[in-house]
């Protein structure tokens, strides 16, 4: 479970808009997602048309459970917003959490503990934070492994941002867990000179710690909230939707790369190492000299692209193989009734790499490649079983 906190102590910079629509887009991408509202103003419920008068229990009661007799669990309070998208709503009583827990041990870990025990069915938890630095924000930070700071590309943005980053830095030092902090340019109006300057300033200062995706100012996003819908439902063809899907994709991409900076690096080293080994191996196997790749100078994308074999990415399985001289490569297995021609791999780049992604849930499958009509064992998959022809699947 990945936990993303949307934080900025400045109000009106787009936190709630980002939290609601990012959560909706992650759910559209088949990630079971829980949006937790940690702002006593409970704007998420308003923006997602959850009737406030019918909310019986809120996140406050779940958080306080460990410190009180009443026990309310997360599943007692969630509202389903869309398939795979739930909301844990807030209420004004959440403002009382801080005074109520004053002096108690581990009061900053309430949300973290709740999520660790009760949110394991979710792939993503997105937390909408209040515009303040207090116990609620600290709880959110302690629970998170990723922090998104939406920054309005307007006048006071840069000043506010450096203060915000200082705060995060201080809080981060107090947190024991690894957190990735990234700035997200929000409410960007490309037509104004100021916004363009602020964006370029942000890119200059925070390039590595900034999302490539930006959230443009889009009136459809405002309208969507006033109609109580995420943008995925209100206007899926809007620019706002496109921006949020790009943000979700970027987050999902980081997920496949391993999340934190350190692990991306170590993972890339592992991928690049196995790619070099496999290339050498494949030269022997296919008897042709594969084009030597300059691994040291490859970009991240190239390193990942040079990976061969089989990888499970949730419900998709990615098959990649190196056949520089082939004209047609197909995949035949028990999942497609061993049809030699129905599932084609596509040429990927001009290095002789072929790849395809097919939907398959986790499990054991047997397959072989059919290269220009000849059945072959996948040289990049070390897991093999003998078949009835004395060859290997
Ligand atoms: N990208 C955007 N385009 C247009 N309006 C936006 C955008 N982001 C936020 N808004 C609007 O700006 C106001 C403040 O945004 P909100 O998400 O509530 O900020 P916060 O949660 O940080 O206080 C809301 O009315 C919201 O609809
Ligand atoms: Mg808000």
Structural description of this entry:
With 393 residues, the chain is of the alpha/beta class. The chain has two domains: 2-259, Rossmann fold (3-Layer(aba) Sandwich), CATH 3.40.50.300; 267-376, Sandwich (Immunoglobulin-like). Helices cover 37% and strands 19% of the residues. A hairpin with a 2-residue loop joins strand 8 (309-313) and strand 9 (316-322). Helix 1 packs across helix 12 and helix 6 packs parallel to helix 7. The chain starts with a strand and ends in a 17-residue tail after the last strand. The model is unreliable at 258-305 (pLDDT under 50). The site of adenosine-5'-diphosphate (ADP) has 17 residues, from helix 1 and helix 10.
How is the topology of this model organized?
Blueprint: E1 2-6, H1 15-28, E2 33-37, H2 43-47, H3 59-64, H4 74-77, E3 79-82, E4 85-88, H5 97-101, H6 110-118, E5 124-128, H7 135-143, E6 146-152, H8 157-174, E7 180-186, H9 193-206, H10 219-226, H11 231-234, H12 239-257, H13 261-286, H14 300-305, E8 309-313, E9 316-322, E10 329-333, E11 343-344, E12 346-348, E13 353-359, E14 367-371, E15 374-376
Adenosine-5'-diphosphate is lined by residues 11-17, 43, 131, 186-187, 215, 217-218, 221-222, 225.
């Amino acid at each position: 479970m990945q936990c993303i906190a949307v934080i900025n102590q400045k109000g009106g910079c787009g936190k709630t808009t980002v939290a609601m629509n990012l959560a909706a887009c992650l759910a559209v991408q088949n990630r079971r997602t829980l949006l937790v509202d940690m702002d006593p103003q409970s704007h998420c419920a308003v923006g997602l048309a959850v009737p406030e008068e019918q909310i019986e229990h809120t996140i406050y009661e779940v958080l306080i459970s460990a410190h009180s007799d009443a026990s309310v669990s997360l599943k007692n309070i969630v509202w389903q917003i869309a398939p795979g998208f739930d909301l844990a709503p807030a209420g004004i009583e959440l403002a009382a959490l801080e005074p109520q827990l004053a002096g108690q041990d581990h009061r900053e870990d309430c949300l973290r503990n709740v999520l660790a025990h009760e949110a394991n069915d979710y792939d993503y938890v997105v937390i909408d934070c209040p515009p303040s630095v207090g116990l609620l924000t600290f709880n959110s930070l302690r629970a998170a492994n990723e922090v998104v700071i939406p920054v309005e590309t307007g006048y006071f943005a840069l000043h506010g941002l450096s203060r915000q980053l200082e705060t995060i830095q201080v809080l981060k030092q107090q947190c024991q867990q690894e957190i990735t902090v990234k700035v997200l340019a929000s409410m960007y109006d490309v037509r104004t000179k100021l916004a363009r300057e602020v964006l370029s300033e942000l890119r200059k200062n925070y390039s590595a710690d900034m999302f490539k995706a930006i959230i443009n100012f889009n009136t459809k996003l405002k309208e969507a909230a006033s109609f109580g819908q995420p943008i995925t439902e209100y206007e899926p063809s809007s620019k706002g939707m496109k921006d949020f899907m790009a943000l979700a994709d970027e987050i999902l991409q980081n997920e496949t790369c391993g999340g934190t900076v350190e692990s991306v690096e170590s993972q890339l080293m592992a991928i690049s190492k196995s790619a070099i080994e496999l290339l050498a191996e494949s030269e022997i196997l296919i008897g042709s000299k594969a084009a030597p790749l300059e691994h040291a100078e490859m970009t991240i994308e190239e390193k990942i692209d040079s990976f061969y074999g089989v990888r499970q990415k949730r419900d998709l399985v990615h098959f990649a193989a190196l056949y520089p001289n082939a004209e047609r490569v197909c995949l035949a297995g028990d999942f497609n009734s061993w049809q030699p021609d129905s599932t084609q791999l596509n040429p990927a780049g001009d290095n002789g790499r072929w790849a395809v992604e097919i939907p398959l849930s986790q499990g054991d499958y047997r397959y072989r490649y059919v290269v220009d009509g000849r059945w072959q064992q996948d040289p990049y998959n070390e897991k093999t079983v003998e078949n009835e022809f004395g060859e290997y699947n």
